[in-house]
Amino acid sequence: MRIDSIEVVHVAMPLIYPWRTAYGEDASVQSVLVRMESQGIAAWSEAAPLAAPQYLPEWAGGVFACIRDWLAPILVGQEIASGEELQARLSFVKGNSFAKGGLDSAWWVLEAMRREIPLYRLLGGRRSQVDVGADFGIMDSVDDLLVAIERAVEAGFKRTKLKYGPGWDLPMLKVVRKNFPDHTFHIDCNSGYRLSDLEMFREIDELGLAMIEQPLQYNDLADHARLQEELKTPVCLDESVTSPDKARKAIEMGSCRIVNIKTCRVGGLTPALEIHNRCQEAGIPCWIGSMLESAVGARVNLALSTLENFTYPADLFPTSRFYRKDLGRPEVFLDQGPSGQPVMSLSEEPGHGTEPDPAMLAECTVARAKITA
Q: Could you tell me the pLDDT band of residue 21, with boundaries at 50, 70 and 90?
């Protein structure tokens, strides 16, 4: 297809309440929306690296500038026949996976719209519904957390993810496990610990978790391999897997037994598919993560999660979980699966069936630019 124009929009979406993790707190989600157009057809995608370079080195303002000044000008006016070709054209810029991911995912959505098929079908997915899990950040008290978990269990969620960080770690986790001895839990450390915390991880190892997500430094593979050798609980890599090459090395080194894939963290749908396939060949299951995107980005993640090696309930959330009003339309809702569990259903419209609400987009916009051929 020939890319006629690319529009990039830096937005700040206010949360209902702050999202707290081991690396910091966000009162709003700063994200970058990408609109790609070809022959009168336009598609939207999203990259949400957050406001500051705390999760990974990228941040929303930098992603916006990188797309506007460097990446989009390389693509507009060009014939791009595949995701691989798009990635090759962008490879002159080192790193910047969120920026590349916003463009890559927009290309896939646009291609699905041009072919008049749903995005998940174009990716090779077959499921029309996807299991999702519950997810709780660092809260004001453990009592508040217990109440929230109880509601999630009653709602039928198959598993619950707990943010885990200094000051909100082992004592919290032991209380949770005592109160919910049979429920499936895993923790997300967001790179908050080091190998020197091995004794703590050995205690965690006795609590029967599904996994320990990203316990050590964000760019590390070697120490994670050493930690995994010491534990029977699977180590899951998130921040450390930013490309197919990093995934290959993690597999070869034994750094993990499960991989979290966030579409734009790894550079878009093209590398995400490659990582999924590499992991599947190695017998390592995957699951989908979220950066608290609007419905625009959530629908891209949802489409990817229909592939068969995504076997753990996804980190995808209904609009009402974090936003009073979603920037994307239609909003994201939970449905009920065949066993009564919470699921999300795929759109059968061409592409992913979602675009920004113009009024909300105007209200949330920090900066906007359009690049044309």
A: confident
Structure tokens belonging to residue 61: 């303002």
Choose among 37, 33, 45, 34: nearest CA to 76: 37
Quick one: which H or E segment has residue 160?
strand 159-163
Q: How far apart are CA 42 and CA 36, in angstroms?
A: 6
What the block records as the tokens of 219 is 């760019």
Using one digit for the tens of pLDDT, what is the confidence trace for 307-358? 999 999 999 999 988 899 999 999 999 999 988 899 999 999 999 999 999 9
One of 158, 161, 163, 246 is an active-site residue; which one? Answer: 163
- Respond yes or no: is residue 161 known to be catalytic: no
CA–CA gap between residue 215 and residue 185 (Å, rounded): 15
Q: Which of 161, 262, 325, 370 is catalytic?
A: 262
- pLDDT (average), residues 42-55: 95
Active site residue 163: yes
- Tally Cβ neighbours within 10 Å of residue 62: 17
Residue 41 is given by DSSP the state: E
Partners of residue 213 on adjacent β-strands: 188, 236
Q: For residues 258 and 312, is the Cβ–Cβ distance under 8 A?
A: yes
Q: What is the pLDDT of residues 141-175, one digit of tens each?
A: 999 999 999 999 999 999 999 999 999 999 999 99
Long-range pairs of 120-123 with CB within 8 A, sequence gap ≥ 24: 120/302, 120/303, 120/304, 120/306, 120/346, 123/269, 123/273, 123/303, 123/304, 123/306, 123/307
